[in-house]
Amino acid sequence: MLLDTSSLYYRAYFGVPESVRAPDGTPVNAVRGLLDFIARLVTDHRPSGLVACLDTDWRPAWRVRLIPSYKAHRVAGGCLLYTS
Prior knowledge:
By secondary structure, this protein is mainly alpha-helical.
């Protein structure tokens, strides 16, 4: 199973309430949502292997040069996205 972890992480951040926090108060909603999603995929599909790819450059300059409108509608993640 090959996962685009960046997109799943982004979805999890907005899909899990911000109230999900670690004992020290740090928001962990994106991490929790991502792990829940991966667990569900593994449970449902029983893959023989799993590769999770993560690209933190959500709007790479080389791609924007080719397609200026690439992800232009997205706002850069707030600090909580990166904290989570």
